Amino acid sequence: FFSNLFYKRIMMEQLDLYLSIAIKAAKMSGDILKRNFKKQFIIEDKGNRDIVTSIDKASEELLYRYFQKVTPEINFYGEETLGNIEGISWVVDPLDGTKNYVHRIPYFGVSIALCEDLLPIVGVVYFPLLGELYMATKGNGAFLVKNNEKSIFVKKQRILCSSTERIDHCFLATGFPHSKSQLLGDYMSELENVLKNVSAVRRFGSAAYDLCQVAKGTFDGFWEHGLESWDMAAGALIAEEAGCTVSKSDGAPWNIKSPTIFVSNQQLHTKLLDIFSSK
To answer: How far, in Å, CA of 200 to CA of 171, rounded?
Structure first.
């Protein structure tokens, strides 16, 4: 008993250390995003209907250098430079919501997760223009910290998912697989079934934002096809620690390499899965 308790305490202290490192990194990256939001920057094509900006690259370069300095023993896996995702890895999206950023829409942020064997154990998501930083460590709950006009973070509060039970009251978020047209068939079938049954569906253009809003209880659930590891890792942990159920859209266990993600409060999860699969 005592050795197990000691092990848990050591693990909690280690997770807290990595959380503080991730928070500092997110703030530094967020400063870059905020500082350059209305300035001129380079925009390049990087794939099928996908883009990258010089700000994405600058943010990731900062994150890579910082993590290499403070945690050189941990792998780094970022959207722009990729890397090693096996074992224990930092999984980073330096600018989640790039198209929002380019079009001056404030729903964008930096997403940082520490993952072990493809499952997140630390998650931080920071939305610099909204002044909101979401955080979680495995087994210790999810929290929101807001900052004031002087960028001083205050008012830390625990967040919990919604308690909605009725499908016709359900308020969902989603994202379109715009750059992966081969996924549209299954997604559109699900969307049609959902729209026939729930109260409303919204799309904000940032999976990290959607996941954090499910964790906060603003949305009752979120699903999407074709996301990448960096899109989901931190937000999925935050949602799970806020009491949500996280799975693939067919109900199977999820990890950061899963082709789909579905997150909702526990009361709605099975009901919505049935709707996804209905004909």
So the answer is: 5
Q: In which band, very low, low, confident or very high, does the pLDDT at 245 lie, cut at 50, 70 and 90?
A: very high
Beta bridge partners, 229, equal none
**Where does 36-121 have alpha helices with state H?**
54-70, 98-102
- Tens digit of pLDDT for each residue in 62-94? 999 999 999 999 999 999 998 989 889 999 999
Side chain identity at residue 94, one-letter code: P
Residue 242 to residue 142: CA distance in whole angstroms: 5
251 sits in the region (left: phi over 0; alpha: psi -120 to 50; else beta) called left
CB 60 within 8 A of CB 79: yes
C-alpha to C-alpha distance for 158 and 153, rounded to whole angstroms: 15
Distance CA 120, CA 113 (A): 6
